[in-house]
């Protein structure tokens, strides 16, 4: 029986057994290439929130990359394919791709950078997006940070049935919404930077956030359907701390979030494909506000997630105008916790 090497990365943390677990499978030298069914079977076997396969780029990556301002001659260095345990393929630039690039940076599949970031490109579905890898020494070892640009933000349906939404989450209707810098932020809306259309839901406080229940899966599914979401989940967030100045003088507000997708069947410890849209939601402005951006026209936020699952994750989001729209970047790190070999599923098997 032929086998493939796999690696389990805890993403958005440098501490093993924290972060969001991701299975990464290297298929760069696999001949013949794995079929989609084989990938789905392997993802089901791992039963993590996502499994990512590193593949050679396809031949259709020589045209203009979509959803970025990157030059037309950029080609993908690697193609990433990510699957949920239920076999659904996802294309967001979140923990599924950031964790894969963290492993790529360790594996020799690209030249290891030293110091300031070096830019590569990833193919996700029919999109090519830039990825920056930077390194800095830590007290015990080299610290690798991955920063990825997400797709162009799209602001889709708002959801106005607040009573049904609150009921589906096990909270009260007045618990929806929050205040920041004197602005009432209470718009519940689908915002996306990828095919995954997540519903963003602000709540009043950390206590309300931690009191949210994802137990009524069917009620949450009904809300997502009526919101016009698909391949999606509900992303509940609140302000944790007021802005403080960092060493560059930027203003960094901190938020805490929780995410549940009925397709996953479990609470996700970190959801980069929702944290990026949250940044766009805050940057662009809601309820007529001008958005939560600094004097330089740029906004940075920290997003903490996974507290309820015991897997504390930290994501950094940067949003700025890029000429033809809004650019969203998400960054974080990872840590290797396991590696081994997995049998390649037979072509006779079905999913």
UniProtKB/TrEMBL annotation:
GO terms for cellular component: cytoplasm. InterPro entries: Phenazine_PhzF-like. Gene3D superfamilies: Diaminopimelate Epimerase, Chain A, domain 1. GO terms for molecular function: isomerase activity. Pfam families: PhzC-PhzF (PF02567). SUPFAM superfamilies: Diaminopimelate epimerase-like. PANTHER family: ANTISENSE-ENHANCING SEQUENCE 1, PHENAZINE BIOSYNTHESIS PROTEIN. This is Phenazine biosynthesis protein. It comes from Penicillium antarcticum.
């Amino acid at each position: 029986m032929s086998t493939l090497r796999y690696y389990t990365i805890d993403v958005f943390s440098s501490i093993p057994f924290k972060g969001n677990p991701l299975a990464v499978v290297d298929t760069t030298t696999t001949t013949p290439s794995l079929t989609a069914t084989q990938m789905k079977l392997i993802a089901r076997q791992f039963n993590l929130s996502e499994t990512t396969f590193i593949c050679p780029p396809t031949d259709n990556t020589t045209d203009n990359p979509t959803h970025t301002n990157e030059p037309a001659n950029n080609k993908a260095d690697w193609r990433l394919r990510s699957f949920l345990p239920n076999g659904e393929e996802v294309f967001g630039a979140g923990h599924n791709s950031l964790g894969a690039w963290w492993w790529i940076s360790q594996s020799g599949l690209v030249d290891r950078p030293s110091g300031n970031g070096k830019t590569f490109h990833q193919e996700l579905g029919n999109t090519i997006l830039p990825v920056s890898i930077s390194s800095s020494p830590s007290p015990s070892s080299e610290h690798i940070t991955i920063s990825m640009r997400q797709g162009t933000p799209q602001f889709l349906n708002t959801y106005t049935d607040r009573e049904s939404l609150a009921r589906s989450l096990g909270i009260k209707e007045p618990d929806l919404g929050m205040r920041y810098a004197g602005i009432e932020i209470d718009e519940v809306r689908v915002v996306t930077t990828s095919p995954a259309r997540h519903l963003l839901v602000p709540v009043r406080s950390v206590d309300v956030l931690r009191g949210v229940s994802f137990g009524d899966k069917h009620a949450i599914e009904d809300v997502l359907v009526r919101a016009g979401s698909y391949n999606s989940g509900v992303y509940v967030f609140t302000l944790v701390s007021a802005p403080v100045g960092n060493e560059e003088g930027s203003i960094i507000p901190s938020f805490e979030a929780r995410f549940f997708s009925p397709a996953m069947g479990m609470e996700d410890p970190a959801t980069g494909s929702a944290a990026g849209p949250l940044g766009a939601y805050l940057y662009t402005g809601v309820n007529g506000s001008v958005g939560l951006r600094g004097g330089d026209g740029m906004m940075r936020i920290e997003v903490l997630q996974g507290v309820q699952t015991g897997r504390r994750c930290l994501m950094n989001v940067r949003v700025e105008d890029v000429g033809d729209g809004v650019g969203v970047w998400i960054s974080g790190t990872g840590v290797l916790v396991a590696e081994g070999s997995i049998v390649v599923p037979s072509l006779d098997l079905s999913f």
